[in-house]
Design goal:
alpha/beta; 13 strands; homodimer; 6-stranded mixed β-sheet
């Protein structure tokens, strides 16, 4: 066995920040990763780093950037990013017709969504240098016999070790046979693009490790390593960030103001986690922050301000971040009311719930009710409690919904 | 609902002799079967009766003829037999490489075996009037998406209701994912050939009923009925007839003498079962025989003689059956030694085990040993017990192995 030079051990250690390498061996996978890095260097063959993209969900949020930032690290070291648009899977949808979350997309929709995805991704890494592929290109070409050969590589018991399958089977909920093919297809992608490392969220553990097994079954001597990145919590610090909870989700397309405001709303206990997963702030600085928070040597609000500025700057430039920060401070110093509130003309008397929906302050009347019940809706600073309240024309008061939404009703 | 005329109720009752119809409903499926028969008659559209053939096992035995005789009944009523050579499955074999019983066959081997199969089948029914198909013709053309759509029609839990899957899963034995496709393929065959009735042994219950479900999933309003035929016991009356136990298996290619002899060896308790499953003897006659055996009004040997003659005649003609019967009687009247024994010249002293193998009386020395241990090897009627016995040249005695193998050693 070749000796691994310390340079690559160091590089591997850097790369595993925030990440879990699988298989982890006795050293957390550092040795195997370092060996791949050294081999790539010595043979002048960049590593092929795989990431699968789901074109059915093209709206990216900060949670997605955790993996993308790791890709960027590899890219900076000269390795090749291979992005796989899951076109084959997206075009199948759910043939059993039972899942509404798996609508079948047309080829055009897939292409359109993939472009949206890449545009957003370009905010984090150099997409032009990446290899963009679509797994329909090889999966749709598999013949009947090739597909069955693929299926022959895995057993039912193996599939059933995947958490969600095991859970559904135990609960007597149906699992259609074709669902076994989604992990198989993702695994076969690793064969098709000959990946050396696959990145994924911790929910991808089974699928990515299967990729390793399938590569081996198809004769690859040194199959891919897996790097699992953590799932980012939403701004409530509890549930993982997801479009399902829009109020705790920061989209890459959010305005500078929204992004900054949402970041300022995170609980203190996840400040350094956000720094670690979403910025380049170094290990020493992170430890210092942890100590400062613990000993109350610093107001957490100041750290959040720094975090919010750093991240907002990444997506909206320095000017955008400066302006967002300024606005935020104004809101706070003006007792929560900013100075640049838009005038909204009320033409005819309107119910408060309808108005909140009309202004896009909430998504539904249900949400409006809940917000009022929680005391989150105010008129000139006074809480509204009556849901049947009618707003007349020419009221000339400031309506506030939640912490950051304002309108002057005229 | 159309009223079913009694003519077709009667026909359905005739056809269900020995068979179980699924779904059985409250009337054993008679009503549904009669409805199909009547509809076929009234619309002048013969029913399409499906039988799958496994080209990996082309050697047919009497057990196979139980289903084939049922096909013949439908054929006589003017319906269409559709035989499906399982080419697609045979050409896949076992991609996991774990099953030796599923070797992958080439297209040429499949065709050759299918021909052998059909030649033997022709001894029972009119193969020239049947539609011969090969499921490779449609299965190999399924695209990736069509195949996944097919897989989407069935759940893992459904598959696991198949006895052998359930058993293996419970025992922790591997089931490769592709194995789920064998029943799915067989089921899809029913869609492809648009079958009205599928025949099969009782071990085909799951697969054939799945065909019904899959036809429905693909939009067929009146999916196929299933007719399950019993598995025939071997001549020991215990284990199902199979090539695995050649001594209890009667091949369609057996000589008249062997066929007759083996049939004479069956135990009394399965005589009427053999009559019922393997001959046209009517219901009344069967009941009479049952009574005769029960009241000892007849020597069962005489009934067996009739059975053996009937069946042997079917495969070897009247002359062949007569000759076989005559030989059999001679053997018995000569205290078990027939008169037309071949002379075998012993050139040099030879061990008894080696001699038995050389004469093809047994397949191996192991079988020879077991036969001697069981007292089944005799010299001029005296049991041989010494396995190291040497047979010299010019012994001039009759060697007997088992009940029906003889040679005069000279």
């Amino acid at each position: 066995m070749t000796e691994i030079r310390s340079e690559f051990i160091e590089q591997a250690k850097q790369l595993t920040r925030n990440a879990e390498v699988l298989p982890s061996g006795n050293d957390g996978g550092i040795g195997e990763l370092a060996a791949k890095l050294q081999y790539a260097h010595d043979t002048q063959k960049p590593l092929r780093i795989k990431l699968g993209m789901d074109p059915t969900r093209p709206d990216l949020h900060l949670g997605h950037t955790v993996v993308m930032r790791k890709l960027k690290e590899f890219q900076k070291l000269g390795h090749k990013i291979v992005l796989i648009v899951g076109g084959a899977t997206a075009m199948i949808g759910d043939p059993s017709g039972k899942s509404e979350t798996r609508p079948a997309l047309t080829k055009e929709q897939v292409d359109k969504n993939a472009n949206t995805y890449l545009e957003q991704m370009a905010k984090v890494l150099d997409v032009t240098d990446a290899e963009i592929t679509n797994n329909a290109d090889w999966l749709h070409k598999l013949s009947f016999m090739e597909l069955l050969q693929l299926a022959g590589k895995v057993t039912v018991a193996q599939m059933m070790t995947r958490d969600d399958f095991a859970k559904r089977y135990a609960e007597g909920k149906p699992i259609a046979i074709h669902e076994f093919f989604y992990p198989l297809m993702q695994a076969y992608d690793s064969v098709a693009i000959d990946s050396d490392i696959e990145l994924g969220g911790t929910d991808q553990r089974f699928n990515t490790l299967l990729g390793r097994d399938i590569q081996t079954a198809y004769g690859k001597k040194y199959p891919q390593l897996v790097m699992m990145l953590p799932l980012l919590e939403g701004t409530d610090g509890v549930v993982k960030m997801s479009k399902t909870y829009p109020e705790h989700c920061i989209s890459l397309t959010d305005s500078a103001k929204d992004m900054f405001g949402k970041l300022m709303s995170i609980p203190d206990n996840i400040i350094t986690r956000y720094f670690s997963l979403l910025t380049d702030v170094g290990k020493y600085e992170l430890e210092t922050m942890d100590k400062q928070i613990e000993t109350k040597a610093i107001n957490p609000r100041d750290l959040k301000m720094k975090l919010a500025h750093l991240i907002t700057e990444e997506y909206h430039g320095k000017e955008g971040a400066d302006k967002a920060q300024e606005d935020f401070i104004n809101v706070v110093s003006n007792k929560g009311i900013p100075d640049d509130i838009e005038d909204i003309k009320i033409d005819a008397e309107i119910n408060i719930l309808d108005l909140l929906v009309k202004l896009n302050f909430v998504q539904s009347k249900g949400e409006a009710k809940r917000l009022i019940q929680g005391g989150g809706v105010k008129l000139d600073g006074e809480k509204i409690l009556d849901m049947s309240l009618s707003i007349p024309s020419g009221l000339n008061k400031v309506l506030q919904a939640g912490k950051r939404k304002f309108a002057k009703l005229v």
